[in-house]
Amino acid sequence: MISSLNDKVKLNNGVEMPAFGLGVYKVEDGEVTISSVRTAIENGYRSIDTAAFYGNERGVGQAIRESSVPREELFITTKVWNDQQGYDETLQAFEESLSKLGLDYLDLYLIHWPVTGMYKDTWKAMEKLYEEGRVRAIGVCNFHEQHLNDLLPECTVKPAINQVEYHPHLTQEKLMEYCDREGIQLEAWSPLKRGEIFDEPILQEVAEKHGKTVAQVVLRWDLQNGVITIPKSTKEHRIKENADIFDFSLSDEDMERINSLNKDDRVGSSPDKYPVE
């Protein structure tokens, strides 16, 4: 059971990753990103998730450098974007991301989307980076069972993470079971469905019962389901509030009620229909 902000999950290669972190999707680069990341680190966050596509790796890197927390205590994730996939292209993209972040190594490097005809070569490049010690763990985002079934037989290094859209309206139960069988840790992006779940009556009832916000209840639900979560916020009070979820637990009944809200409804693109070839 994850019981504090400092608790970690052991990945399939033995690397330990914080179960809770800060996402910076669509956060403006520069002072907004720097302030958000710095605030999170000051308030105990140790995992920061960015991506080449977000355009804010420089800001994340600056906040890390300005932090008083040693680099080895932080867990930094970024991702290779679709138009940078392929073997040589991925190696170059990694160098560009590392340069923008101003880091010597990454903790986690992910394939952002399963680009048809590209992700196997991309994975081979990521295995090379892993084997060279440039990154501590490698994984994927938005991979469904068919993508993993296609990739896994050719892996020499199994993905440690599969980061997918995950919230009470999209519980991904079959994918979760698949990843659990394969030893691949599930991680949630958009855990709060970009605010679209805040008006859900059942979530409001559970939140009121525990004296918490809907956001806090959903993030607690993530962790109790064994899913790493990385909520995004640029506001200091929200960053603190999101992490204030370790002084209560959801009952089995609470969990079942929240699980029942699933309707396979996405706020992002479907990996099965992603418009890239």
From TrEMBL:
PROSITE patterns membership: ALDOKETO_REDUCTASE_1 (PS00798), ALDOKETO_REDUCTASE_2 (PS00062), ALDOKETO_REDUCTASE_3 (PS00063)
NADP-dependent oxidoreductase domain segment(s): 33-262
One Pfam assignment: Aldo_ket_red
Key words, A-Z: NADP, Oxidoreductase
InterPro entries assigned to the protein according to its UniProt record, in alphabetical order: AKR (IPR020471), AKR5G (IPR044500), Aldo/ket_reductase_CS (IPR018170), NAD(P)_OxRdtase_dom_sf (IPR036812), NADP_OxRdtase_dom (IPR023210)
Highest taxon listed in the record's lineage: Bacteria
Keyword Transferase: no
Presence of the UniProt keyword NADP in the record: yes
Family statement drawn from the similarity comment of this UniProt entry: Belongs to the aldo/keto reductase family.
The protein's name: Aldo/keto reductase
Annotated source species: Virgibacillus sediminis
